[in-house]
Write a structure and sequence with these properties.
- The complex is a heterodimer of chains A (about 350) and B (about 140).
- Chain A has about 350 residues and is α+β, with helices and mostly antiparallel strands.
- Chain A has two domains: about 110 residues, Phosphorylase Kinase, domain 1 (2-Layer Sandwich); about 220 residues, Aminoglycoside 3'-phosphotransferase, Chain: A, domain 2, CATH 3.90.1200.
- Chain A is built from 14 helices and nine strands.
- In chain A, the strands form three sheets. In chain A, strands 1-2-3-5-4 form a five-stranded antiparallel sheet, with helices on both faces.
- The longest helix of chain A has 27 residues.
- Chain A starts with a helix and ends with a helix.
- The relative contact order of chain A is 0.12.
- With about 140 residues, chain B is mainly α.
- Chain B is built from six helices and no strands.
- The radius of gyration of chain B is 21 Å and the shape is elongated.
- Chain B starts with a helix and ends with a helix.
- Classes of the chains: A alpha+beta (about 350), B mainly alpha (about 140).
- At the A-B interface, helix 9, helix 13 and helix 14 of A face helix 2, helix 4 and helix 6 of B.
Chain lengths: ~350, ~140
């Protein structure tokens, strides 16, 4: 299902599918149908479902995520895993959308998909002019920065065994987590048709030589930034984009927050949080100390991960698996990441 | 008009004429992204001859300096083999093997020699990435 005509049929097919799940429901109607996130990752459809059942008229805000067959990193985090993670998180203190159904039958929508709750809130693009202004204004109001830090602390405080998240793979304590991450991104790089890049090899060898040790294993989101959070009334209403989650060193997430990747030229972490406030609030909430040395290491690991992303993304276009020219553009992001890595390594 | 100049011109046409004429958001974004890609590719192609000359000179100088730094005969065998390959075919894949062999031989080399070796290699890597940034940034 890849033509525009096929895609146009998806809302009808979603409605027909929901009818099979809501067996007591009648008069199903979808309103406010909106398709977002085209091409890069899984397709996302938002809508309000109206129907009648024995109790009378009902309404559900729903979100459908569909695997279009060529999503970036689809083999590393498929929708079934995302669904399982959301199911596990439902009983925890972390705000996440309720997961309703996962469907592996590709005949229905042309690819596997999941149905989850449409949580109230908005997710502003942190890189756009409007989004940048919004986060800066929110930083001054103060509630959202505190919610940003508190939500990360909550995420890292989840009892992941109790939540049933062991299926994500438990790394060995010590150096196990970083070793697994390096191996994962190495494999992705090797799967592409890009020729070996000496700076990337230097970076990988350096990472293998300097692995930090940790005994604290938590759930790690893997991309904790404003663009992956739903915000309602200056508070985080849901943590989204469960595509890169792992069990590992929480400093991996903290490093992502501390990096200057998402600051948009401001001194604020994620263009939102004062560094000192983040440190004191996070440390108080988790009763731990932020290991800045480990964060510097993970920052270098993010450079490897970014290079792997861009190699994989640009390959999707180069090998004809996707026609999205934004993916072709990422081939020139690789040198930018490697230049940054070289500076991190001191040259 | 060279290939690079042609691509630059195509990029301007996409950016200034085609993109603005498209109303639908997705194809409009694609047109502008195609403009970015052709612009970068145009610059890359235009710079390629000079970059190839510079890289050959850099790799040749690197090989000579590594020879001096290492005392070739006493170098660990894996590193010596990688250097031989790099000398016979000085390109990025063989340089990658030199780097991997240097890290793998770190204990045998002793720390000081390893650091000197990597410092010299990194001079070449910095020059290479600076060239790539001329069209990628």
């Amino acid at each position: 299902m890849s033509t525009a005509e096929d895609v146009a049929q998806i809302p009808t097919r979603i409605r027909d599918y929901l009818q099979t799940r809501l067996t007591d429901a009648s008069d199903l109607k979808m309103e406010n149908v909106e398709r977002i996130a085209v091409g890069w990752s899984h397709e996302t459809w938002l809508f309000d479902l109206h129907y009648r059942d024995r109790s009378g008229p009902q309404q559900m805000g729903l979100c459908v995520r569909r695997d279009p067959g060529n999503a970036l990193l689809r083999h590393l985090s498929d929708l079934e895993q995302q669904f399982r993670v959301l199911e596990c998180l439902e009983a925890t203190a972390l705000q996440t959308p309720k997961a309703y159904w996962f469907e592996s039958d590709t005949e229905i929508l042309g690819g596997p998909f999941l149905v989850m709750e449409k949580v109230p809130g908005t997710c502003r693009n942190p890189w756009g002019r409007e989004g940048r202004a919004y986060y800066q204004a929110a930083a001054e109001r103060g509630t959202l920065p505190a919610s940003f830090t508190a939500t990360l602390a909550t995420l890292h405080s989840i009892d992941w065994r109790d939540a049933g998240l062991e299926f994500l793979g438990t790394p060995e304590s010590g150096q196990g987590f970083a070793k697994r991450e390096i191996a994962k991104w190495r494999e992705l790089i090797a799967s592409t048709e890009h020729q070996p890049e000496p700076i990337l090899i230097d970076l990988i060898c350096w990472l293998e030589d300097n692995i930090p040790s940790t005994d604290r294993i938590t759930l790690v989101h893997g991309a904790y930034r404003t663009g992956n959070l739903l915000i309602d009334d200056d508070r985080i209403s849901a943590v989204l984009d469960w595509e890169l989650q792992v069990l590992g060193d929480p400093m991996y997430d903290v490093a992502y927050v501390l990096s200057d990747l998402n600051r948009e030229g401001t001194h604020l972490l994620s263009n939102l949080v004062e560094r000192d406030a983040f440190f004191s609030d996070y440390e108080a909430a988790t009763n731990t100390t932020i290991d800045e040395s480990a964060c510097r290491y993970y920052n270098a690991l993010y450079a490897m991960r970014s290079a792997a992303f861009w190699m994989s993304a640009s390959d999707l276009y180069a090998t004809g698996k996707s026609d999205d020219i934004r993916l072709a553009r990422t081939a020139w992001s690789i040198p930018v990441v490697l230049e940054r890595a070289a500076r991190d390594l001191g040259y | 008009m060279t290939d690079g100049e042609l691509l630059q011109r195509l990029s301007r046409t996409l950016k200034q004429k085609i993109g603005p004429a498209i109303e639908d958001e997705y194809p409009k974004t694609q047109a502008f992204m195609a403009a970015v890609v052709t612009e970068k590719l145009g610059r890359q192609i235009a710079l390629a001859p000079a970059h190839e000359v510079a890289q050959r000179a850099e790799f040749s100088a690197l090989l000579g300096d590594l020879d001096d730094l290492l005392d070739f005969k006493s170098a660990p065998p894996a590193l010596r083999d990688a250097l031989v390959d790099f000398g016979e075919n000085p390109d990025k894949p063989t340089l990658c093997r030199v780097i991997e062999a240097a890290y793998a031989s770190r204990q045998i080399l002793d720390e000081m020699r390893f650091r000197k070796l990597m410092a010299r290699i990194r001079v070449t890597l910095r020059a290479d990435i600076d060239r790539q940034m001329e069209y990628a940034a």
